[in-house]
Amino acid sequence: MHGINQKLEFFPVRIAVLIVSDTRTTETDTSGALLVQRIETAGHVVAERLIVPDDVMSIRNTVSSWIADPDVDVVISSGGTGLTGRDVTPEAVTPLFEKTIDGFSVIFHQVSFQSVGLSTLQSRAVAGLAGGTFIFCLPGSNGAVKDGWDKVISYQLDSRHKPCNLVELMPRLQER
After folding, report:
1. Cα–Cα distance between 90 and 87 in angstroms, integer?
2. Among 52, 99, 111, 119, which is most buried by a count of CB atoms within 10 Å?
């Protein structure tokens, strides 16, 4: 079987949402609001939502604190994955990864290509694992958040998704 098995139990996860932007505020942050709404509608818990500037240390310190927080299972960021000089989310976050989830970028770009065509080349969406916490870095547009959450991340964070999902791996992430 491929897809969501409604007969299985759903296990909510705790997700921290990070918006990387020099210009957005809570009032103007549409991609963060969209992501929070989708997370809650899916039955998960928003552990925290923050906006930080496009600054390597601000991003890295925030994500590091969430990795260390036992009340955060997943971090999803939006913004700062482009090609301009201020886009530094991958540079801030990837050094924290113990393991990179290479397939996320590949699948995200396939999905994104269906929405925005070759413009997907301008995104450096990445994902990884650090300290037992899954981290997904999405572009800052509403469309990218919809593509990333609706077509990729939501399925992998649904314990009922088969043949496999990331939630079923959580108890084993800290194995040595």
Report:
1. 8
2. 52
The token duo for 97 is: 């990864």
Query: What's the whole-model pTM score?
Result: 0.97
Q: Rounded to whole angstroms, how far apart are CA atoms 163 and 154?
A: 15
Ramachandran region, residue 108 (left: φ > 0; alpha: ψ -120 to 50; beta: rest): alpha
Using 50, 70 and 90 to split pLDDT, how confident is the model at 170?
A: very high
CB atoms within 10 A of CB 85: 7
Structure tokens at 159: 């314990």
The DSSP secondary structure of 50-114, one letter per residue, reads EEE-S-HHHHHHHHHHHHH-TT-SEEEEES--SSSTT--HHHHHGGG-SEE-HHHHHHHHHHHHH
**Residue 40: which of 169, 154, 147 has the closest Cα?**
154
Structural tokens at position 126: 């990445």
Q: Is 116 helix (H, G, I), strand (E, B) or coil?
A: helix
**Cα–Cα distance, 87 to 92 (Å, whole number):** 10
For residue range 87-137, what is the model confidence (pLDDT) as tens digits?
999 999 999 999 999 999 999 999 999 999 999 999 999 999 999 999 999
For the chain, the farthest-separated pair of C-alpha atoms sits apart, in whole angstroms, at 48
